[in-house]
Amino acid sequence: MNILAIYDTKFSITPTGIQFNEDLSFDEWDALGQKLAPVGKSIGFIIGDWINYGEGRYGEKYDDALGRTGLAYQTLMNYSYVARKVEISLRKENLDLHHHLVVAKLKTSEEKEFWLDMAQKHKLGIRRLRKSINFGRLATEEEVQGDPADKGVITHLALINRLIRWWKQTTADDPVDQWDEEQRENVKRDFKLVLDIYEAL
Hints:
mainly alpha, two-stranded antiparallel sheet, 9 helices, 2 strands, 63% helix, 4% strand
């Protein structure tokens, strides 16, 4: 079945959303949601398989096609990695791409299947699945919640790394020597806040 084939005169699916041309009954609206949800869960796998096919079939030519998707290169590479490392026969429909990304690093198909089955059976979130794999057994909720590393604490280093990534990407796309005076002054003003923190230390 082609899950991307969703046609109806009552709505139009566009790259930026859905335009409703006529009123939908509750049942029609519900049925549409049942078709859209699997597409959302599947799209990373679909694109990943597409990339891997193109790389194997067309070699370097596939790079141009990747550029035309409009998706970030790292996103495409993540999709490709998961699709390559977790074969279709192991994938679970009710688990998202991130669950599969966690198991992609495992060496054998048996290990991947075991942990995906565990994630499905115990309704594991990403952090609990990752922690369970690290422990080699099912981690309890308390073990996951009790680890400060799992609380998503934002440190100054994380923020600085994000700032550096932003700077590299911004200046790669739009070199500083091409900025006008107003743009330079605006960024300088914003970075003065960072300088104030540095000088307070």
